[in-house]
Automatic annotation (TrEMBL):
Identification of the protein by name: FAD-dependent monooxygenase
Keyword Disulfide bond in record: no
Keyword annotations: FAD, Flavoprotein, Monooxygenase, Oxidoreductase
Pfam families associated with the record: FAD_binding_3, Rng_hyd_C
Alphabetical list of Gene3D superfamilies matching this protein: 3.40.30.120, D-Amino Acid Oxidase, subunit A, domain 2, FAD/NAD(P)-binding domain
Cofactor: FAD
Domain FAD-binding: 5-358
Keyword hit for Magnesium: no
GO MF, one example: monooxygenase activity
Protein species of origin: Actinomadura fibrosa
Length: 498
């Protein structure tokens, strides 16, 4: 069996795996991504959150995101109707104070949306441009963790040819039924099934419905069906979660095409509308976290590490943020600037983020199931959970509850956006100044010489109280007033230079 050496092997070419590969390449650790499917799925399943769009902007894809994306409704805005074309029962969304924060807390428009397939295509193109490799139709069949490398055995689906790949590190981003997790012997002991649904992706010309709704998300409840209608492109691409209908079985049940069309038309409110079904599946909406996110040099990300339902829309996004957290750390260890102990921070940090994301998912799913009447109370109740799970979560030991509406500088949290300059002379966001490098923000006058070899950039930030050290993933590593006080924080993380 022939062998191949790569710095990092990423197993899974979905949005999490492809984005993780892109982040690794961005930080100089050219990976190989393998995916058992033959190509990227064209089905527009999940959608991006504001924080994910910030991350894509930080790695240089801001213009591409603007070009590919579209403006939907404000995050979590929804309309409740007796059918898509029928009477409006309620309009709801996040409370005004939470919506105002989302309008000002980022340089990215909070209404901007990319679908899962768009994220994958952008990440694939950028990964290849940066020198990474992608192999479709390639499945992992064996895995061994050694002290200084990981050995993976893969099979080409078309030829049956086996190959061994040696990697310094392996990232399992291969979904809720992860082969990597299984081969590592890691379990998901707290997995809980919340609901059993049928999800359909389809094309239908329904006219300017989203303009009438004021959003891309509609909940329909009538005597024939309880379902969602979600616009994927503002034109003719849709998805629907069919949650309930008369006679729905207790167990997981695939629907016939005829029954699917009948339920979709009941949700739309037109028995004659032509519908082209692109994909349909029965699935369990479950939540849970793996007992470990790491075994030696193999690490888990996305649904392989934590699974959640689609309620709240953060599953894919939490996984992409896993990859963003992990990629800079692997690259920093591989280039020798940090000790391997840096990777010990991955699991506690991302476990805290996943807990915040899962809290939203559980709360919304149970809220939708129990909903009877106006939904405003539900959205008031989950608003803080949404903001915390989406982008205002904290990393240990700074992950305690705080008022998410107070977008202040906090150690262990995302560095906040502030506009610098003026609209007339050109504005730049503090997030753009930091981009994806170690950054020290100081009051005018500086804060000492940065350590050699780290590539630390220093920027003046008027009005700043003390100085702030921002990590390559945009999180605050240190905030204080002592001269060069950031150096102990770097050394705690395993800095080897300077």
């Amino acid at each position: 069996m022939d062998a191949l050496d790569v710095p990092v092997l990423v197993v899974g070419g979905g949005p999490v795996g492809m984005a993780t590969g892109m982040f690794l390449a961005h930080w100089g650790a050219a990976p190989m991504v393998i995916e058992k499917r033959d190509a990227i799925s064209p089905v527009p399943r999940a959608g991006t959150s504001l924080r994910t769009l910030e991350i894509l902007r930080a790695v240089g894809l801001g213009a591409a995101v603007q070009e590919a994306g579209r403006l939907g409704g404000p995050p979590m805005r929804a309309v409740f109707k007796d059918s898509g074309l029928g009477a409006t029962l309620h309009r709801t969304g996040l409370p005004e104070r939470h919506t105002r924060l989302l309008e000002t807390c980022s340089p990215v428009d909070a209404r901007l949306i990319l679908t899962q397939d768009q994220v994958q295509r952008l990440a694939l193109d950028e990964l290849r441009r940066l020198g990474g490799q992608v192999r479709f139709g390639t499945r992992l069949v064996g895995l061994a963790c050694e002290d200084d490398h990981v050995r993976a055995r893969v099979v080409d689906a078309a030829t049956g040819r086996e190959q061994q790949i040696r990697a310094a590190y392996l990232v399992g981003a291969d979904g809720a039924n992860s082969d990597v997790r299984g081969l590592l012997g890691i379990t998901v002991p707290d997995r809980e099934v919340i609901a059993r649904l049928n999800t359909v992706f389809f094309r239908a010309r329904l006219g300017p419905l989203t303009q009438e709704w004021g959003t891309h998300m509609c909940f329909v409840r009538n005597e024939a069906v309880y379902a969602t209608l979600i616009s994927k492109d503002g034109r003719d691409r849709w998805s629907s979660h069919i949650m309930d209908y008369p006679g729905k079985p207790e167990g997981l049940t695939e629907l016939t095409e005829a029954r699917t069309l009948e339920l979709l038309r009941a949700a739309i409110g037109d028995d004659t509308v032509p519908i082209d079904i692109e994909a349909a599946n029965a699935w369990e909406a479950a939540t849970g976290m793996a007992s470990a996110f790491r075994k030696g040099r193999a690490l888990l990300a996305g649904d392989a590490a934590h699974v959640q339902s689609s309620a709240g829309g953060l599953g894919m996004n939490t996984g992409i943020q896993d990859g963003h957290n992990l990629a800079w750390k692997i690259a920093a260890v591989l280039d020798g600037s940090f000790a391997p102990a840096l990777l010990d921070t991955y699991e506690p940090e991302r476990r805290a983020a996943a807990r915040a994301s899962l809290a939203l998912s559980r709360g919304m799913h149970r809220g939708y199931q129990a909903l009877d009447g106006a939904p405003d109370d539900l959205y008031e109740k989950i608003a803080a959970d949404y903001l915390r799970g989406m982008m205002f979560y904290g990393y240990p030991p700074h992950d305690g509850d705080h008022d998410v509406l107070d977008d202040a500088i906090r150690t262990g949290h995302r560095f906040p956006h502030r506009w610098l300059g003026s609209p007339g002379t050109g504005r730049v966001s503090t997030l753009d100044r930091a981009a994806s490098r170690w950054t020290l923000f100081t009051p005018p006058g500086g804060h000492g010489e940065p350590p050699a070899g780290l590539g630390l950039q220093v920027h003046d930030l008027p009005g700043l109280d003390g100085a702030v050290l921002v990590r390559p993933d945009g999180f605050v590593a240190w905030h204080g007033t002592a001269r060069d006080g950031y150096l102990p924080a770097l050394r705690d993380l395993g800095l080897r230079t300077g």
